[in-house]
Amino acid sequence: MLDDFMTRAVLAGIGTGLAAAPAGCFVVWRRMAYFGDATAHAAILGVALSLALSLPVFAGALGVALAMAVTVTLLTGRGQAGDTLLGVMAHSALAFGLVGVSFLTDVRIDVMAYLFGDILAVSRGDLAVIWGGAALVLGLVGWRWSALLTATLSPDLARAAGIDPRQEQMILTLVLAVVVAVAIKVVGALLITALLIVPAAAARPFARTPEAMAGLAAVLAMGSAWAGLRASYALDTPAGPTIVCVLALCFAVASAVSGASRRA
């Protein structure tokens, strides 16, 4: 079954959506969209380093994304506004990554595949990495779900309950770095943030509990991956951007339905 490239692509999209959905809920709740964007942009530098050092792309992307996320977390509030620091580091890492790739004359690389994804070229090894990353994300989020929710709701309440908000922030940072490393093959560094925030934002109006929102976001992300691949195949369009277009349509429909129900 895995000999069929479309089957591998569908499994990759479903695995990535499953990993991105719970992390994306926390990104939406904490208003960390720009943080996720910075982490995703940094992954291109990780790709360049991994190719230069003959390391797996997943390892390089994960290492640099994690380093970026931790650095931003530690430096925010120490003389620089958070959004300014994120903007500087995100675009600097992306620029250094693209420049670094240009020096790799001995390595054949399609930069567009890492910027916008190349899900149709997913191999069995890539599938193992994607689903392994998804399992790690779900395991971490499931293990720290209550503590992460409490720290998101109120850092003061978390401290009163014996929970260290900075520790939970670091765990969420690790989760986001894993999602970025997993998703870069599917939708690319420039569109990863959409896979994080759009399903969660579309699910939010219809969910009464955090758990329901995460579950609905996962369904939307996985369904959009499947529908986006079908549409891409039928229309001969880029797969990664088409998946994000389907997600955007889901968000538009959800917003319209939510607005209509409020007016009724």
Short overview:
With 264 residues, this protein is mainly α. The protein has helices at 5-29, 33-52, 57-75, 82-102, 111-116, 124-143, 145-153, 155-160, 165-183, 192-203, 210-235, 239-263.
Brief descriptors of the model:
single chain; mainly alpha; 12 helices; 264 residues
What does this structure look like?
- Helix 10 (192-203) crosses helix 11.
- The radius of gyration is 18 Å and the shape is globular.
- It has helices spanning 5-29, 33-52, 57-75, 82-102, 111-116, 124-143, 145-153, 155-160, 165-183, 192-203, 210-235, 239-263.
- 79% of the residues lie in helices and 0% in strands.
- The longest helix has 26 residues, at 210-235.
- It has 264 residues and is an all-alpha fold.
- The protein is built from twelve helices and no strands.
- The mean pLDDT is 84.
Structural class: mainly alpha
Residue stretches low in confidence (pLDDT < 50, at least 5 long) are none
Rg for CA atoms:
18 Å
Number of discrete helical segments: 12
> Can you summarize the main beta sheet?
none
Query: What is the rounded distance between the termini?
Result: 48 Å
Overall 3D geometry?
globular
